């Protein structure tokens, strides 16, 4: 790992958008440095998604400096000193150097400072408190590089104190461990997590959700989740005892066959019923789409087996739709991962296209059925027959069948 970032080797540093923002903030009187995930991941040689910038300017000063340079400023978290600068649609989180004056376990009252060491001291982990300037010179006031190299997720300062300032740090600890941890989390930090775990209940669903889903996106989230279970963290978050074994199998299947992974499906793997899924979705304030996916995947749908016939598969696919079928299939696969037939089933499902039911309500009324609920009932009876006939009857055959049904 290099201890300097060569800007020419990192697109995100070199991008004109980045340069414009940094130039505006580095104008006389101000100093700006990259920090957080961008620096951490660049040092690891990993891709950089969003760029966090720390500045000695106060939010008002930073806002003025950016606006003067025709950069759009969105006051995303002004009370905490964060604003978002947008250039060519590309966002940069700009946060004024600060220290926490008081905290309540969820949010802090902050004071701005020009002292980089103070700013580092309020950050969560040493690997997240590494700064880099536009030239790539690294500033590492808490020894984060050594920890990053060792795969050691270490609190800046005393774990117990830092957790009580913001209980979300419990989840962040395991999230970063899932991604970067190679060395065991130290016992003092785990003891602090255990002692303070009830504090998680004071956090908003949105904050919990964000960290939990990011954790579940890690290539292998299982070691972190096992530690969370041991420390009593999962019991605070989930409505039931988490089925870690199933998630473990799901990850192994995905890895073995290079299948895409999804954090909501991973969450579903931990649960046993639609009711549990609904409870968790509410707790985590999942979006409607995510909630639906979680509930649909966690519901106990029978009928899945590795040795289904092609006809049975088509029937299930039509009933559940391709996406939900895929989710349900993967979870059953995780339950009986030893059976290689799942793979064939998965591929068959992937190749399926939904057949179009070629009859509608107008056809039913043409057969003399009066407008009203009877039309829908007749239509679904006909559709069921079509499905049972393996989608073979075409429009003419369906209309003949319909006429026969209408005569009865
Ligand atoms: P990612 O790559 O996932 O964005 P990140 O390290 O950039 O990871 P962010 O959530 O974007 O994480 O936060 C940016 C930085 O802000 C962190 O690196 C850390 O220094 C600081 N930070 C964020 N949340 C907290 C927190 N709850 N307590 C202390 N510091 C925090
Ligand atoms: Mg970030």
The helix content is 40-55%
- First CA to last CA: what distance? 79 Å
Instruction: Indicate the CATH architecture of the largest domain.
Output: 2-Layer Sandwich
Element-level helix/strand string: HHEHEHEEEEEHEEHHHHHHHHHHHHHHHH
* Average pLDDT taken over every residue: 95
Q: Ligands bound here?
A: adenosine-5'-triphosphate, magnesium ion
Coarse morphology:
elongated
User: Count of DSSP E strands?
Assistant: 9
Approximately how much beta-strand content do the residues carry?
5-15%
Instruction: Provide the CATH superfamily of the largest domain.
Output: Beta Polymerase, domain 2
Total helical elements = 21
Cα-atom Rg, whole angstroms?
A: 27 Å
Supply the CATH class of the largest domain. Alpha Beta
pLDDT < 50 runs, ≥5 residues: none
CATH topology of the largest domain: Beta Polymerase, domain 2
Largest sheet: 5 strands, mixed
Tell me the number of structural domains.
4
| Spatial order of strands in the largest sheet | 1-2-5-4-3
**Helix/strand-derived class?**
alpha+beta
